[in-house]
User: Which sequence fits this backbone?
C-alpha cells in the first residue's frame, strides 16, 4: 500500500455524438481524479458547448482521429501514477466510485499493472478471460481486457510509450500490448467485478482493416512478449469458443505454460492465486 496518495489522471476519449456524455463523465470525475482530460474529436461547433473550466482540460483533435491517435496523445499528456482511460460511450451511475475503486486497486499490495471495470457489453466477457479470482480482493486476474473503462500503472504507460500507433489508427491491440507488457514484468491485469459499466454493442468502423492493423502493431513487441500475446489470446479465444471444460481439465498445464513464459515460479502468488 502506498504511503502517499496515488495521482490518478483520468482521460476521456470523445467523438461525434458523444460530447454530452463526455462532459457528464468529466464533471463526475472532478475532485475524484487528480487531473481530468477530454480528448475530443467532435469538432469545436458540436453541441453542447463546453464552458471554460479550471476543473478539467478539453483538448480538440481532428475528427478523423480514432482510438490509436487518441491513445498516442493520452500517453503523451499523461501525468501521475495511474492513467484511467474512459470511452465516452460508457455509462455509469457512479463515476466518483469508479475513480475510487481504481485508486484502491493500485493502492493495494497486489502487483497490478492494468485494472479494468466489468463492462456490459464487451467482446471479452469476464467469464471468458478469467485466469483465476484473487481470494483476498475478489479481483479477476485476466488474460484480456478491453479499452472501455480501464487503467494503466505509470510503469506500464512508460512501456507503452515505446510503441507506435502510426500504422494502427483504429487502435486495436492497445489492451493486448498493455497486458503483455504487464505480465512480462511480473505484474498482473485484473477486472474489478464490483464496478459495473454499461456499454453499447457495435462498432463504427471497418473491422477488417482493424484486424490487419492489429497484427502489424503487435509485431512491434519483442519475440518473448509477442509469444506471450499468443498464449494469453489462446486462453480467451478457446473460452469464447465454448471449450471451458477442456480448459478446466488442462488448467494446470496452461498455468505452467504461462509461468514458464513469464519466468515466474509455480508457487508465485501472481498466478497461483494463493496468499
Assistant:
Amino acid at each position: 500500500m502506498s504511503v502517499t496518495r496515488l495521482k490518478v489522471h483520468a482521460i476521456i476519449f470523445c467523438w461525434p455524438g458523444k460530447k454530452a456524455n463526455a462532459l457528464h463523465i468529466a464533471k463526475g470525475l472532478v475532485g475524484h481524479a487528480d487531473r481530468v482530460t477530454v480528448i475530443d474529436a467532435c469538432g469545436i461547433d458540436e453541441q453542447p458547448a463546453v464552458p471554460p473550466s479550471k476543473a478539467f482540460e478539453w483538448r480538440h483533435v481532428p475528427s478523423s482521429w480514432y482510438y490509436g491517435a487518441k491513445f498516442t496523445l493520452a500517453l503523451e499528456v499523461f501525468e501521475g501514477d495511474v492513467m484511467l482511460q474512459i470511452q465516452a460511450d460508457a455509462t455509469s451511475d457512479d463515476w466518483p466510485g469508479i475513480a475510487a475503486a481504481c485508486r484502491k486497486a493500485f493502492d493495494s499490495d497486489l502487483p497490478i499493472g492494468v485494472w479494468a471495470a466489468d463492462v456490459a457489453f464487451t467482446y471479452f466477457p469476464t467469464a471468458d478471460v478469467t485466469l483465476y479470482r484473487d481470494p483476498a480482493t475478489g479481483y479477476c486476474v485476466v488474460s484480456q481486457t478491453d479499452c472501455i473503462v480501464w487503467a494503466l500503472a505509470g510503469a506500464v504507460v512508460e512501456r507503452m510509450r515505446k510503441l507506435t500507433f502510426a500504422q494502427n489508427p483504429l487502435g486495436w491491440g492497445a489492451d493486448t500490448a498493455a497486458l503483455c507488457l504487464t505480465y512480462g514484468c511480473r505484474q498482473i491485469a485484473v477486472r474489478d467485478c464490483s464496478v459495473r459499466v454499461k456499454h453499447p454493442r457495435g462498432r463504427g468502423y471497418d473491422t477488417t482493416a482493424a484486424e490487419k492493423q492489429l497484427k502489424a502493431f503487435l509485431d512491434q513487441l519483442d519475440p518473448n512478449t509477442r509469444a506471450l500475446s499468443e498464449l494469453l489470446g489462446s486462453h480467451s479465444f478457446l473460452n469464447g469458443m465454448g471449450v471451458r471444460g477442456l480448459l478446466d481439465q488442462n488448467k494446470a498445464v496452461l498455468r505452467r505454460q504461462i509461468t514458464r513464459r513469464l519466468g515466474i515460479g509455480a508457487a508465485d502468488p501472481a498466478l497461483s492465486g494463493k496468499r
The longest strand covers residues 188-198.
